[in-house]
Amino acid sequence: MKGLPLPVVSAINPAVGHLFWWQQSVRKQVGPILEGGADRDSAGARQTIFHALRDSPLPQQEKTLDRLCDEAEIMTGAGSETTAQAMTRLMFYLKHAPETLVEVRRELDGVVRKGGPVPSWIELQRLPYLSAAIKEAIRLSYGVTTRLPRICHEDIRYKDWIIPAGTPVSMTPHDVLTDPDVFPEPHTYRPERWLEAGTAGRKLDRYFVPFGKGARQCPGMNLAHAELFLTASTIISRFDWDLYETGLDDVTCQHDFFVAVGKLDSKGPWLREMEHTDQSPARGRHVLCSIDFKILGSFKYNIVSHHRAAGVTEGSTRAEAGKIILPQWMHNGAMDRN
């Protein structure tokens, strides 16, 4: 299919067409970097990991366009789907367990003025309950649900055992994060468990493995946290919502597709912005908001009015150069109802 024009592929299979479009866009960004060379980079140009790889002492066969594009796809794919899964569960569980949303809003009300900007990620991390709520959502998204093997090229001595070189050693994050001996009621969303562990002096973080552990843990974990803190705080402080035709089966892990997947016939989580409530910062509006977090590279919000389709707003959150870009309607705290 790669020999066919992209519009033809998209007409035959839109999902494959989207994948090919994504791969082409990666190639268009990495190619000029590889072709440029350090002496041709414009002064003050933003440096990326691909500039570093290009100028590194790696063998030339490790710096081909195909090789660097593979690296780019791994980084953007791994960093988009996993963060999106965590964001999906956060928005779901805050409404599924509404007392948690009340507590998160109480904290945010102390740092976010109505209609004002959201504080920096550093400031938001100082809010204990918000931090616990996000951490619990990450725990219930598991990072990935499959094994991530580590292979050492030398023999390893572990206690009384010798692990031969080349032996894959792995664990399943899902099994650790749902161990009832570590996390009582493991499938229950309860941010308080992290606050209680800190008070009791328990090292619960030792078992927090959605990003892996050690020297090979996720290199993008700080970016993931920044996305979650900034995006969640913006939405929570400016909008109110309710679950719409969405239940636990849509978000709980029922299938291992590298990431956790709910029931196979699920349409994904749907959230509905509510009409005026005492807590709603978006009073008088009533729209249905389908939050589809499965688009690589961005979160996509389909905005549908109470009576008819009102259009689509895409790219509500993108990770570019380590910063979060929000659309104007989120900055303004208002939606266009057209």
Question: How does this structure look, described?
Answer:
It is a single chain. The protein folds into 2 domains: 6-37 and 46-63, no CATH class; 74-332, Cytochrome P450 (Cytochrome p450, Orthogonal Bundle). The protein is 39% helix and 15% strand. The protein is built from 11 helices and 12 strands. It has helices at residues 6-12, 14-36, 49-54, 65-96, 98-109, 121-124, 128-139, 173-177, 192-200, 221-238, 328-332; strands at 150-151, 156-158, 161-163, 168-169, 241-243, 255-257, 259-261, 270-273, 287-292, 299-305, 309-320, 323-325. The strands form 4 sheets. Strands 5-8-9-10-11-12 form a 6-stranded antiparallel β-sheet, covered by helices on one side. The protein has a two-stranded antiparallel sheet with strand order 1-4. A hairpin with a 3-residue loop joins strand 10 (299-305) and strand 11. Helix 2 (14-36) packs across helix 4 and helix 5 (98-109) runs antiparallel to helix 7. The longest helix is centred in the N-terminal third of the chain and has 32 residues, at 65-96. The model is unreliable at 275-338 (pLDDT under 50). Keywords: Heme, Iron, Metal-binding, Monooxygenase, Oxidoreductase. Belongs to the cytochrome P450 family. InterPro entries: Cyt_P450, Cyt_P450_CS, Cyt_P450_E_grp-I, Cyt_P450_sf, Cytochrome_P450_monoxygenase.
